[in-house]
Write a structure and sequence with these properties.
alpha+beta, single chain, Tetrahydropterin Synthase, Chain A, four-stranded antiparallel sheet, 11 strands, disordered C terminus
Length: 371
């Protein structure tokens, strides 16, 4: 019987089989028990698993969610009692709406990108969604194919945001608002679906008119931009001219007010002076009349360049010496000339002559009279 159960040594079987057979024949039941215990230990050891940083382990017991484990060394009951799914919750993932990246180049998906705006125009919008997993258990068990659900929800949110705006706002002025509204609406949809996904960023890649009418639409946009530029230039010119005009007007008003005050004060001063003169004239008419006569002569005779000569001066050798007209050339010559040197007789004589007091032309001549 043993020969039929175990092959004889020297056959084609390996050497370890012969050794195991000899051990089993030697120890009998104890050998089978040891092999069973060893197999049990190996089976239990298969429950050890490692969760890397940035990941979460989702433990299932007979297919139902049992526990969520953190990064590190963990243990679960071996298969088929418990299984574990490791989900990366730290990496940023992406999904594309309106286009697909093929070989590094974006390819438009017109069935997704063409949308209707509030003013009943068609616009081509392509958006990139960046997201990460915030709840690993919900990501695995709440929704089937959560990435596809995210793409569909993103398209719905984008169409909702674009449908409430005009085409000009979507293309030019309110692009950032489109991104913000799309992200907020998408997050509400994903939370209601319990997808366990958190949207981190929504970026518009393309927001333009359809290819067939894009050139004509750009011409319209450029015309509107030119109009806005001209309006801004006119506004800037107006803002530059109006303050200047207001300033000039204010200056003229201030000058007129100052001139009026000057004339009024001067008139009041003249009237007060006249009143005082009248009062003094009433008290002393002769003195006041003579003072007024002298003051008038001083004012009149100070302006003309008259020369008063004594009688008989015309018979002298030099009846008139115009020194007053020579004062300016003499002063200019003094400033241009250098300092006098010691021993210069002509310079010293000239200096003494200028510093000497002027004598009257004739000591015997009578007092001068006006001519």
């Amino acid at each position: 019987m043993n020969q039929n159960r175990w092959p004889q040594p020297g056959g084609d079987r390996p050497v370890w089989v012969d050794k195991a057979t000899s051990i089993i024949e030697r120890y009998g039941v104890y050998a089978y028990l040891g092999i069973g215990i060893l197999a049990l230990l190996l089976w239990l050891a298969t429950g050890i698993y490692i969760v890397s940083p940035g990941e979460q382990g989702v433990v299932r017991m007979f297919g139902r969610h049992y526990d969520t484990t953190d990064p590190g060394l963990n243990y679960r009951l071996p298969w088929p009692i418990q299984t574990v799914d490791v989900v990366n919750v730290a990496s940023i993932r992406r999904t594309e709406v309106g286009f697909r990246t093929t070989s590094g180049r974006p390819v438009a998906m017109l069935e997704e990108s063409l949308m209707l705006t509030k003013d009943e125009n068609i616009v081509d919008v392509q958006v990139l969604i960046q997201y990460r997993v915030k709840d690993a258990s919900a990501y695995l068990f709440k929704v089937q194919r959560p990435d596809e659900v995210l793409a569909s929800a993103a398209e719905v949110a984008l169409r909702s945001s674009v449908g409430r705006m005009r085409i000009d706002d979507v293309i030019t002025e309110r692009r950032a608002e489109v991104q913000t509204e799309t992200q907020a609406f998408l997050e509400r949809l994903l939370d209601s679906y319990q997808t366990g996904i958190q949207v981190t960023d929504v970026r518009l890649q393309v927001a333009d008119a359809p290819q067939q009418v894009r050139d004509a639409f750009h011409e319209v946009v450029r015309a509107r931009e030119d109009r806005e530029r001209l309006v801004n230039e006119a506004q800037a010119y107006m803002e530059d001219i109006l303050p200047r005009a207001r300033g000039v007007s204010r200056q003229i008003q201030e000058e007129s007010i100052a001139y009026r005050e000057e004339r009024v004060r001067r008139a009041r001063g003249e009237a007060s002076r006249f009143s005082q003169v009248i009062e003094e004239y009433r008290r002393a008419p002769d003195v006041t009349r003579e003072r007024m006569y002298i003051e008038s002569l001083e004012e009149i005779l100070a302006k003309p360049g008259k020369v008063i000569m004594s009688r008989g001066a015309e018979n002298s050798v030099l009846p008139f010496l115009p020194l007053r007209g020579m004062q300016a050339p003499v002063a200019a010559a003094k400033t241009e000339s250098t300092a006098p040197r010691s021993g210069d007789a002509s310079t010293e004589a000239t200096a003494r002559q200028e510093s000497a007091p002027r004598m009257p032309l004739s000591p015997s001549t009578p007092p001068p009279r006006a001519r």
